[in-house]
């Protein structure tokens, strides 16, 4: 029996891996409903503060969409894989300028070769200043400001697009259908005269706060005071504060260590999986667990003694 199987009864793991499609579909519906409610509240109020709050809320649901695309990449949405991919593309990935299969290719390779030179995520971030730790607090703050003014967001999007295009295996028919989706959306926006609303409630959140949330989570998963010599210490689980769940950790994405160990477990069962694993004293004593995205994570990533321009990167194992 492997080390991973010794941590949990295979029967329990099998139970936790059973898909409950209604939970995933319900999550998608709720996320879209929250976006609609945020837009309605902002438009009805006409208040700039309500608008800014709406931007943050919408960005949080965009992050939630990204987390569900991640679920789709592991075929954890519904049982029929083809239908799952099409549904997830239409409702989650395409609106976020992504594709499920494109993300899947990159992400599965990340799982197979986590934090090594064969991990596309690792190699893409290797040497990048924003993923080099420890940092001075001032440098970290500048990174976040860079996302809020969209400079860093555009940089990341361009970088990601270049990476994904190298391994694009989508068919011509798929590309035409995706293009048709965007053309139809543009035609609908023109017909309804809502380009202003599209810019205010989709483009602004997307290129600012959403990308900031994505960056913070990306750091939290594998960077900052990590020990890459062991699978229990090379991925981080975060115990988020209640409000952080809405923005930094939607759909239990904070249980990243557990996900790396058992990627077949869908998001709604990750808390139970975590609780089971924590019964093992050896696991609980070694697992890298951080308390809070805005408290514990900064404490692990920032240091007054860090160089202004960090030059050292964590070593891969």
From TrEMBL:
Q: Mind telling me which residue stretches traverse the membrane in this protein?
A: 24-42, 48-73, 176-194, 200-216
Q: Which UniProt keywords apply?
A: Membrane, Transmembrane, Transmembrane helix
In the UniProt record, does the keyword Transmembrane helix occur? Answer: yes
Q: Give GO BP annotations, semicolon-separated.
A: lipid biosynthetic process
The molecular function terms in GO held by this entry are: oxidoreductase activity, acting on paired donors, with oxidation of a pair of donors resulting in the reduction of molecular oxygen to two molecules of water
User: Would you tell me the protein name for this molecule?
Assistant: Fatty acid desaturase family protein
Q: Where's the Fatty acid desaturase domain? A: 48-291
A single GO cellular-component term from the record reads: membrane
Which top-level group of life is the source organism from? Bacteria
